[in-house]
Amino acid sequence: MMGEIVSLKLHRKRKERAAKEETAAENRAQFGRSKTEKTLTEAKNDKAAKDLDQHKREE
């Protein structure tokens, strides 16, 4: 029984394509949003930071 012959060049190219597709998906999620969605996310993050700051103890 012999193993299947694998082209390392094709394997490397497939791996690079998969990595590029993953990066593209992340960029689509980050930059492919409407202005309303961006402002809503920013407001939620600001509120979370403000709420966290309110729980800090002063010394």
Report on this model:
Helix content is 75%, strand content 0%. The chain contains 2 helices and no strands. The chain has helices spanning 8-31, 35-54. The chain has one domain.
Number of strands: 0
Shape: elongated
* Helical run tally: 2
Q: Give unreliable regions as ranges.
A: none
State the secondary-structure class: mainly alpha
Tally of individual domains: 1
Succession of helices and strands:
HH
Mean pLDDT: 91
Largest sheet composition: none
Tell me the Rg in angstroms: 23 Å
State the helical fraction: over 70%
Beta-strand percentage?
A: under 5%
Distance between the termini: 73 Å
Region (Disordered): 1-59
Organism: Aestuariivirga litoralis
Biased composition (Basic and acidic residues): 34-59
Protein name: DUF4169 domain-containing protein
Provide key terms for this protein.
59 residues, mainly alpha, 2 helices
Q: In short, what is this structure?
A:
The protein is built from two helices and no strands. It is an all-alpha fold. The chain has one domain.
List the helices and strands and how they pair.
Layout: H1 8-31, H2 35-54
